[in-house]
Structures are given as C-alpha cells and as structure tokens.
Design a protein that fits this description.
CATH superfamily of the domain at 143-219 in chain A: Ferrous iron transport protein A (FeoA)
Number of strands of chain A: 8
Strand content of chain A: 15-25%
CATH topology of the domain at 143-219 in chain A: SH3 type barrels
Number of helices of chain A: 8
Structural class of chain A: alpha+beta
Shape of chain A: globular
Radius of gyration of chain A: 19 Å
Bound molecules: manganese (II) ion
Strand order of the largest sheet of chain A: 3-8-4-5-6-7
Oligomer: homodimer
Helix content of chain A: 40-55%
DNA sequence: TTATTTTGTTAGTTTAATCTAACTTGTTAG
DNA sequence: CTAACAAGTTAGATTAAACTAACAAAATAA
C-alpha cells in the first residue's frame, strides 16, 4: 500500500521531472516545504518500492511504475477539479485546495463515476490534460504566450502553473480558457504584451503572466 | 488540529455512547479493531484535548466539545452518503465505504455546497439523521420493528446499523425506506415476523432483520 | 467468598514521517 | 586552482500511532 505522504512525493517528483526528465532533492524539498534529509530518506524508500531511480548525488528520476502511479494520482486530482467546477459550481480558483485532499481517496468507483458523469473530459478547469486510466498523460502541443510574435492570433488553452492569485487576476481581466487574443505589440524592454480580446481593445500583460499562459496559435503574420 | 485517526476514535465513541451514555475501552477496541492499550492511550490524549471524560477504570464519555466534534464528522459522512446516492447515482449499499474517507476532508465550502445542492437534507440514504452545522443531532422517534405488535401498519424509516450485507438483503426483498408494511403475525419461538408490503402478501423477516429496521407506526389494532 | 475470566493499565518496542546538527560531495566565483 | 557556497547525506532525536507482554482491577462464576 502507498501512503498519502508517499503519493505527495510522487506527484511532486512527477511535475518537477515532467519537462526536464529529472529533478533533485533540493527542488522537492522546496516544493513540499520539507527539509532535505527527510526528502532524501523518502527517495530511498520510494526507490526500494520501485518507484524512483536513486543513486547518491545523482539527479532523481521516476521509474515507469512511479510515473504511472503519479499520473494516476494526478488523474484523480484533475477529474476532481473538473467535477467540482462543472457539477458543483465551484470557481476555477477554488477547486485546487479541495482536490489536493480528494485525490488521495482510494475508490476506483468514485473516480470512474465522476469521469462518466463528466462525459470523459480530457482537460481540467485550468486546461491541464487528464491522464487516462493507464496513467498515460495526453500530449499537449501548446506554446507559452510569451514565445509568440506580434500579430499572432491565439486561443488561450491552459494556465500553468495556476496559482489562486493568477486565476483571480485572469478572472478579473475577463480572460478565460477559449478566449482568443490578438497580439498588438511586444514591449522589448520588459517583454510585456499589448493584446486585444473580446470587447477589450487594449490590455497589457506582463511577462510574469504571459509565461504561464499556454495558447494555440491560430494565425500568424505571413 | 485534529487528526484523521482521532476523528475515527471520536466517531466510534459517539456512536457507542449514543444510546447508553457511556462506553468502555474494550468496545472501542472491538469496533475499530485496535488493541486495548492503544485505545487507552488515545482516550487519555483525547481527554487532554478536552474531548473525552477519562478516569481510570471508569466508563468513557464524550465532553460537550467532543460530542459536537463527533457530530460534525458524522454530518460530513451522512451528507456525503446522500450526495453520492442522490447526485452521483450510487446504490445505498455502496456509499458508506466512500463516505468513510470523504468525511475527513477539511473544507467547509465543499460540504456546504453538497448540502445546498441536496436541498438541505435531514436524513442520509439509510434514514439516519444528519446533524446540523452546530453539531446538533435531530431527534428521531422511531421504534424498532421487532417491538411492534401483530396488526400494526408501519412505514420503514431507517436501517440501523446498516451493513452492506443487510442493505443488499433488503434490496433483494424490495424493501426500501418509505415502504409500508403490515404485520400479519409474530412467531413466538424465534420472534420472526410475517409481513405484507407492496405486491408481496407474505414475507418472513427474522429477528436479526427486524431488530435493525426503524419504523413509524401508522395504525395499530384498536 | 473465593477463583476465574474479562477488562483496563503500564511499560517498553516498532514504524512512519518529520526534524536538527554535522559532515561530505559537488559547483561556482575569484 | 582553490576557497567558498550550495546541495546531498548520515546520524540521531522526536512525535504519532500502532503493537506485545506483564500486571492490576473489576466482574462473574463456582
Ligand atoms: Mn490543481
Ligand atoms: Mn495531496
Ligand atoms: Mn488544475
Ligand atoms: Mn455510513
């Protein structure tokens, strides 16, 4: 059996390694706000259980088994977020805290019922993909808004990472998933973007914001 | 902060003391399948925290604070059961296992949302009353079916205790909450009841069953 | 009423998950 | 290249929640 604590370490390691492929003790320590020696011994334990590749002083990686286990927890998290959002009427900035707890419930029936009632969703309320029942994470081929060019027309697909504060900022700006934006110009000094969307002809987005917004490019300058 | 483990002890003590007023270490030990010395030290800890009246070798009682705390956990349990039953389509014998886990989630918003979506229910799918937000348990003035007389007409209001096996038995017998039964006769030897309900003119219910069925008496013999 | 059984308590051990302090290894800046 | 700093590890302590073994008190049966 895998404990709630171990699940949280696996999830942290999964998200830290998602792009880079590996992570280190210090990163997990900061992410979970747990001291390094504690993380170190937990990594050894998870290695014993076959979830983590651990070698002294080397970067950490999840085994295939560990990746699957982590993805299945993330699946429960994101299904829960979607359920809270779509079926219970919570706002997109309220669902994460509750899902952090619900994700640890052991009941395949509970989560497959959610899945069914939601019509087998593929993304959570923040646009993040929901892994399938086998722990396979769907690929997303979006780009961050701060990598786009002036003149591009893009659709907002996901927010990552999605802090409560950021989500509230976006809500206040009337920016939501599916919103199409046109990039009017890019300020070279601070990389802020002037954009237009919906009934708002001029809005300025800082790079702190644009580096979290994943978009699909619809049209660029020829 | 109160741990999940402590919550389970409080809940056990609440239900064991509900009728008699007190309980003892051995009963909790059996109920939770935890050895007596462990229960003993947990009772001392809960006494330190102000939830339990503990004196060596004397029966255990909850303090008012302890009662309230326990009732609020039971509230979360029963709201969850009702939500799973009414909004997610689970059967009445499937909801308890999931609720055992969900009841420990710390999120007032989550449970008040359930409450609201359910229209502020007063009973769970097994007819057990749902305590209010202040931890006040509504009184139920039902009687057990095995205390009724031949000729009585009664309505099934609750099942207590409601094991999965019992609930499945009742479902198979087409007996559900709200069903009205007429007591045809009582067998003195084993206290089994011959009853009629719905389209079933003759069904025999053993005392093992009738001692768990709470009913409201509609009419008795004059 | 005494003996036996049941229940309750104490003492000490174990495991999981955390910590601090101290030391080692690896990385970076001068 | 070495000194300093950052990151990783080891050792040992702490707390929560469980256990077993042994003993004490209370309840029950003979
Ligand atoms: Mn989330
Ligand atoms: Mn979590
Ligand atoms: Mn999310
Ligand atoms: Mn229940």
């Amino acid at each position: 059996m895998i404990s709630q604590t171990e699940e949280n370490y696996l999830k942290a390691l999964y998200s830290l390694t998602y792009l880079k492929g590996d992570a280190n003790v210090n990163e997990i320590s900061k992410r979970l706000d747990i001291k390094m020696p504690t993380v170190n011994s937990m990594m050894k334990k998870l290695a014993d259980k076959g979830f983590v590749h651990y070698e002294s002083y080397k970067p950490l990686r999840l085994t295939e088994e560990g990746k699957k286990e982590a993805a299945l927890i993330i699946r429960k998290h994101r299904l829960t977020e979607m359920y809270l959002f779509q079926k219970m009427g919570f706002a997109w900035d309220e669902v994460h805290q509750i899902a952090e707890q619900v994700e640890h419930i052991h009941s395949p029936e509970f989560f497959s019922k959610m899945d069914e009632l939601l019509g087998y969703p593929t993304v959570d309320p923040h646009g993040s993909p929901i892994p399938d029942q086998n722990g396979v994470m769907p690929l997303e081929n979006y780009v961050f808004l701060n990598t786009c060019k002036a003149g591009d027309m893009v659709t907002l697909m996901a927010v990552q990472p999605s802090s409560k504060e950021l989500l509230q900022y976006l809500t206040a700006k009337n920016l939501e998933l599916g919103t199409t934006l046109t990039i009017k110009s890019i300020e070279p000094f601070d990389e802020s973007l002037t954009v237009a969307y919906k009934d708002r002809p001029i809005e300025v987005l800082s790079s702190k914001v644009t580096s979290t917004l994943l978009v699909r490019v619809i049209t660029g300058l020829a």
